[in-house]
């Protein structure tokens, strides 16, 4: 749920509650006010009536006149009474014979003296029906709440578009951000302090991360580079040592093992250096590369090695020329071919197909135990003791990633298939 | 024959010089670019082994100086930076070969002798070891003037051994010399063994003595 929806929901719930409470409250308040007004007006009315009647006290037959008046008037009754009563109000329902319904009336009864005779004066006044009042109030409130909801929702929508635009802008940039590709995040200045703070913090964070990342990249390259010289010294000392004619069998074996080890280090180092060079975009020169020609040459070189394990190499190579970096294409193919030969069981088959834009390398072999994704990670080896550096496929993947080639792996019926679509 | 080693890593220089002196080359050493510049202007060398990254400047500058002074010394660039750009730049500036660190000393020795042969005899040359002779231009191997038919790998192997007479060459060095980067796939023993066996058989059939000796656990050696 979006932030604005949460706040909108709370807002609407609160206003609904308020409206629900306000209906009875305003009902009672309005009725009270109306009653007070009506009562005041009744009192005034009755006093004026009494004053008015008293003007006619000189009339002999006022009593008779009052009886007549009582019968003629609709809202006022005045009749002689034996006892004097306190002034009091009441609300009653009276049947209206014309409208044929009960209507509420407010009645004021009070005792008055006319010509020293007590009379009971009753004045009534029609008041607003409770039901009508409730319906009117509820109607008004419901219209109000509808307007409120629609208004707030619309306002919310346009606000979220306008106000949150810088936020969504930053968010989409963050989603698209890749440490090894993008320089930095370009945020736009908004007038909202929070967003500007956020952008500043994100900018700071990404800049810092990038700096660390670059330093690390540089470190790997420098480290591999610096290792080359000590490795060269090591190898040269072994070569000298080997010339010693008084070597025993054990020391010869030790030298041989040392040489294997230094060779492994050399290969590891070379591959690490290659990986970091690809990372550092040092293979940017593009030229027209005849992929088929390179493939044929590489396979020719590999044939004697494959023969040693009785591995047969079949190939169907159509012409393919691409604009690419030659070194990367060579490394890509060498590593795929090496990988295929290394993991083919003896007497197995390696097949290489090149057609259209696709390079396919198939080899028979046992299924891999690790997940295919892990296979492309650095230093992941099926056979820990093998002389492989565990970097070959990582380099393949790195090249495909950096050149935007699609790399696919499948294992069907005992055959591993790597296919690369070279764009 | 005079060789100049321009390299700032003293330990590496020591090994290189020691190895090459066994081949009766005269080795001079320059640890810095300025030393090297001084030496190349004063003397002529048959081969210069040139490290690209020196403490006081790039080896490529030295190449430029050589070229500007019309020196025809053979040059092998040696560098820790195995980048194509450096290689291309070096070769464009007149270097004859390129070797990246780390390298096998027998490999270095083979490259040096190839360059010296090319410079000295203007490509028209023969090398021999007792009754075995190689016409390098025609790539023809003869034993007692009788041609021996060798495969390319066997020829390369023989050349490699000839460039490192009386020295033990490890199987790794041979494997890398013959297969380059593909060597990592090899079970070196089997691979080298079959090539050596075939080479020995062919030379023996042509009437040569068995000069290729197996050095237990290490490799091979061409010796009488």
Explained architecture:
The complex is a heterodimer of chains A (423) and B (224). Chain A is of the alpha+beta class and 423 residues long. Chain A has 3 domains: 147 residues, no CATH class; 112 residues, Orthogonal Bundle (Helix Hairpins), CATH 1.10.287; 135 residues, Heat Shock Protein 90 (2-Layer Sandwich), CATH 3.30.565. Chain A contains 10 helices and 11 strands. In chain A, the strands form 3 sheets. In chain A, strands 6-8-9-11-10 form a 5-stranded mixed beta sheet. Chain A has a 4-stranded antiparallel beta sheet with strand order 1-4-3-2. In chain A, helix 6 packs parallel to helix 10 and helix 8 packs antiparallel against helix 10. The longest helix of chain A has 52 residues. Chain A is rod-shaped. The model of chain A has no long low-confidence stretch (mean pLDDT 87). Chain B has 224 residues and is an alpha/beta fold. Chain B has 2 domains: 119 residues, Response regulator (Rossmann fold); 97 residues, Arc Repressor Mutant, subunit A (Orthogonal Bundle), CATH 1.10.10.10. Chain B is 43% helix and 25% strand. Chain B is built from 8 helices and 14 strands. In chain B, the strands form 4 sheets. Chain B has a 5-stranded parallel beta sheet with strand order 2-1-3-6-7, with helices on both faces. In chain B, strands 8-9-10-11 form a 4-stranded antiparallel beta sheet, covered by helices on one side. A 3-stranded antiparallel beta sheet of chain B has the order 12-14-13. In chain B, strand 8 and strand 9 form a beta hairpin. Chain B is globular, with a radius of gyration of 18 Å. The model of chain B has no long low-confidence stretch (mean pLDDT 88). The chains are: A alpha+beta (423), B alpha/beta (224). At the A-B interface, helix 5, helix 6, helix 7 and helix 8 of A face helix 1, helix 7 and helix 8 of B.
């Amino acid at each position: 749920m979006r932030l604005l929806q949460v706040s909108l929901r709370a807002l609407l719930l609160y206003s609904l509650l308020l409206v629900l409470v306000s209906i009875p409250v305003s009902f009672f308040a309005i009725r009270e006010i109306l009653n007070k007004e009506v009562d005041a007006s009744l009192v005034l009315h009755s006093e004026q009536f009494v004053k008015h009647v008293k003007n006619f006290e000189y009339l002999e037959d006022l009593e008779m006149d009052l009886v007549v008046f009582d019968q003629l008037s609709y809202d006022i009754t005045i009749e002689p009474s034996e006892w004097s009563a306190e002034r009091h109000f009441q609300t009653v329902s009276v049947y209206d014979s014309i409208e044929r319904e009960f209507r509420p009336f407010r009645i004021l009864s009070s005792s008055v003296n006319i010509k020293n005779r007590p009379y009971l004066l009753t004045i009534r006044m029609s008041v607003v029906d409770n039901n009508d009042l409730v319906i009117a109030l509820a109607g008004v409130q419901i219209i109000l709440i509808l307007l409120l909801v629609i208004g707030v929702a619309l306002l919310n929508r346009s606000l979220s578009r306008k106000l949150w635009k810088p936020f969504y802008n930053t968010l989409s940039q963050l989603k698209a951000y890749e440490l090894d590709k993008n320089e930095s995040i370009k945020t736009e200045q908004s007038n909202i302090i929070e967003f500007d703070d956020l952008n500043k913090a994100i900018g700071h964070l990404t800049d810092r991360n990038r700096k660390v990342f670059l330093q690390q990249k540089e470190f790997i390259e420098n480290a591999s580079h610096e290792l080359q010289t000590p490795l060269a010294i090591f190898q040269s000392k072994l070569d000298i040592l080997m010339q010693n004619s008084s070597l025993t069998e054990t020391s010869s074996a030790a030298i041989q093992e040392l040489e294997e080890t230094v060779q492994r280090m050399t290969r590891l180092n070379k591959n690490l250096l290659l990986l970091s060079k690809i990372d550092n975009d040092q293979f940017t020169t593009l030229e027209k590369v005849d992929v088929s020609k390179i493939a044929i040459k590489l396979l020719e070189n590999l044939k004697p090695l494959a023969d040693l394990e009785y591995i047969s190499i079949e190939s169907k190579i159509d012409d393919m020329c691409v604009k690419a970096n030659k070194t990367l294409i060579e490394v890509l193919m060498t590593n795929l071919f090496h990988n295929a030969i290394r993991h083919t069981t003896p007497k197995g088959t390696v097949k290489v197909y090149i057609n259209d834009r696709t390079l396919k390398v198939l080899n028979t072999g046992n299924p891999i135990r690790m997940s295919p994704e892990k296979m492309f990670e650095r230093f992941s080896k099926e056979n820990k003791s093998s002389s492989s550096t565990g970097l070959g496929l990582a380099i393949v993947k790195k090249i495909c990633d950096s050149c935007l080639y699609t790399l696919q792996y499948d294992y069907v019926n005992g055959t591993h298939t790597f296919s690369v679509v070279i764009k | 024959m005079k060789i100049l080693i321009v390299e700032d890593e003293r330990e590496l220089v020591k090994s290189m010089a020691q190895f090459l002196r066994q081949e009766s080359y005269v080795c001079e050493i320059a640890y810095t670019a300025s030393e090297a510049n001084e030496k190349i202007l004063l003397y002529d060398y048959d081969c210069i082994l040139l490290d690209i990254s020196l403490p006081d400047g790039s080896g490529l500058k030295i190449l430029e100086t050589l070229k500007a002074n019309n020196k025809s010394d053979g040059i092998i660039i040696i560098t820790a930076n195995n980048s194509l750009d450096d290689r291309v730049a070096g070769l464009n500036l007149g270097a004859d070969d390129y070797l990246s660190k780390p390298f096998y000393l027998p490999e270095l020795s083979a490259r040096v002798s190839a360059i010296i042969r090319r410079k000295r005899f203007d490509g028209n040359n023969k090398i021999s070891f007792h009754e075995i002779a190689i016409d390098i231009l025609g790539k023809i191997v003869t034993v007692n003037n009788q041609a021996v038919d060798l495969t390319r790998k066997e020829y390369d192997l023989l050349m490699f051994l000839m460039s490192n007479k009386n020295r033990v060459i490890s199987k790794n060095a041979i494997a890398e010399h013959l297969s380059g980067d593909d060597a990592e796939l090899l079970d070196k023993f089997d691979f080298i063994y079959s090539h050596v066996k075939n080479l020995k058989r062919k030379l023996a059939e042509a009437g040569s003595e068995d000069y290729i000796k197996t050095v237990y656990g290490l490799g091979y050696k061409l010796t009488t």
